Amino acid sequence: MIVKRVFDVLVAAIALMLAAPLLAVLAMAVWRADGRPILFQQTRPGMGGRPFTIYKFRTMRPGSTTEGDQARLTTFGRWLRRTSLDEIPELWNVLRGNMSVVGPRPLLVDYVDRYDAFQARRHEVRPGLTGWAQVHGRNALDWDERFRLDVWYIDNRSFALDVKIISMTIWTVLSGKGVSQPGHATMPEFKRLQAENSTVREESADVSQGDHHA
């Protein structure tokens, strides 16, 4: 959608200009609290599953992956995640066209081969800074519900829905709810196909907006 892309560019460009002082302050704060590197960079799958590099403020200290993300999460990083300020550098991804303001959140490259046909539909659009799943529970959702909400957005996306999601995101961020599941920095790893029958799940995704509550 051309209108969506123009909207993304305008929002990202204006937000980056307005947030420049905040970005500088946060970068200094990350450096003073946790050292370098200031930015976290990771390859994530975008639209069509094409890989891109995502940028965030670093919230974890370096360490072994066997140590667990929860143990590596720093005190300042925990605050950054609760306020979603660690996500601000992703505006650069939006400006470059890797991401959209609204869309399914980009997950890990390792998950791509684990999706069934229904779950893989989340790659039909650009991943987003925020999305329908984020304003209905964020990381507190289980994987099945998250994928169902992602696909519902894809089937019902519109400019009006995007504006609604952005407005709902403000309250979601301010509430600080759903940042993580107990015992995890975000969510447990997605390890397998979550449903035996994709057809059943596709039918369950055909619901109205009024069936969900933020």
SS-based class? mainly alpha
- As laid out across the biggest beta sheet, the strand order is 1-2
Name the overall outline. globular
Can you give the helix content as a percent range?
Answer: 40-55%
Unreliable residue stretches? 194-201, 203-214
Q: What is the arithmetic mean of pLDDT?
A: 85
Biggest β-sheet description: 2 strands, antiparallel
Please indicate the percent range of residues in DSSP E strands (runs of 2 or more): 5-15%
The value of Rg in angstroms is 17 Å
**Beginning-to-end CA distance, first to last residue:** 27 Å
Q: Report the total helices.
A: 7
The secondary-structure element order is HEEHHHEEHHH
Count the strands? 4
Number of separate domains: 1
Task: Describe how the helices and strands are arranged.
Layout: H1 2-34, E1 39-45, E2 51-57, H2 69-72, H3 75-83, H4 90-96, E3 100-102, E4 128-130, H5 143-156, H6 159-175, H7 198-204
Helix pairs in contact: 1-4
Could you characterize the architecture of this molecule?
There is one protein chain. This protein is mainly α and 214 residues long. It has one domain. The strands form 2 sheets. A two-stranded antiparallel sheet has the order 1-2. It has a two-stranded parallel ribbon with strand order 3-4. Strand 1 and strand 2 form a beta hairpin. The C terminus is likely disordered.
